[in-house]
Design goal:
Elements: E1 2-3, E2 10-11, H1 26-47, H2 51-64, H3 68-81, H4 84-97
Antiparallel strand pairs: 1-2
Helix pairs in contact: 1-2, 1-3, 2-3, 3-4
The structure holds zinc ion.
Length: 99
């Protein structure tokens, strides 16, 4: 299930449009899938301790969908790269998004 970006109704994945407001959802599902794939690739690079490539993948995912698990991937890769200041800034975004 995902939330319709227009009316926030829960919609089954694979639906071509929202049953309540008729917003077209095909592109949204494509973006969700692409973000998920980039996230998975980032995780694989993290396991190989290739933090630079992991950061590139997580950052690509983040521009498609700024969710917390993607932000956490960015934080881990930034720490791996030794950029603690940027990692802290991203961690603050997670804390601030809870309010
Ligand atoms: Zn809707």
């Amino acid at each position: 299930m995902i939330l319709c970006p227009t009316c926030r109704k829960k919609v089954y994945e694979g639906s071509s449009s929202c049953p309540r407001c008729e917003t077209q959802l095909n592109m949204l599902f494509k973006i969700e899938k692409l973000a998920g794939n980039k996230y998975k690739q980032g995780c694989l690079y993290l396991k190989k301790q290739d933090y630079k490539k992991a950061y590139i993948m997580f950052n690509a995912a983040y521009h498609l969908k700024a969710d917390d698990r993607i932000k956490k991937g960015i934080i881990i890769s930034l720490v791996g790269l030794g950029d603690n200041i940027s990692a802290i800034k991203m961690a603050l975004r997670i804390i601030q998004s809870k309010h």
